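Researcher: I'm preparing a figure for a lab meeting and need a structural model of a single chain. I don't have an experimental structure, so a prediction will have to do for now. The sequence is pasted below. Please return the structure as tokens so I can convert it later.
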Amino acid sequence: MSKIKLGLVIAKPEDIISELEKYVASDEADLLVFPEGYLKSEYLDQAKQIAKTHKKWIVTGMDDKRLKNKKLESGIVIDPSGKIVGEHQKTSITQWEIDHGFKRGNSVKALKTSLGVFGFAICYEIHFPEVTRILALQGVDIIFNPIGTGMWHEEQFKQWNAVAKTRASENRAFVVGCSHYNDAIPIAYAYAPTGECLVSARDTNRLISVVLDLDKYKTDKHFKERRPELYSLLTKK
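Model: Understood. Here is the structure written out token by token.
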């Protein structure tokens, strides 16, 4: 499938399953994207059943307590059969998350699916260019950026869009993301591999649909000009 009918959901976090059911049942999208931490791991089986019932893809951030004594921020990909076909644990976490008991993930790996190659940069992971570049070197088509809150001020809203645009164009991949609907500035966006803005929305509780044409934006990634032998400083603590 070269074209993906994607839905970015700026969702209310109060009633997770009913909101999930409402948006996944919509005819506006075949793949639904939800914010960081939107799903709770105790509701994961219900989310899998919703995906299976409506034959839709669900990509969501999840507060993950599946492992005993280890709390993670995860990104989950559920296919239309209700199966988890990929996941990622957030590798760079904030001091707030550390203070609230979250642990870091230790892997950056692209996820091969029947729709294409997916990758996660969860919330502020998008500000670490190494994360998205590693995904790009693995052939990623779409980088998902589920966002945990919203934008706290206008400057952050502009900055986040600028970073997303840059990550898309420098890695020649789609970069898409959305936040919760709350008292900050809600945000949803999609940038093409050229850096073209396909959609940028704010201040709304709704599903924003956009079509990602994977074939249209097949471009040279220019990675053959990289000089990895000069970049060792990046891996030093």
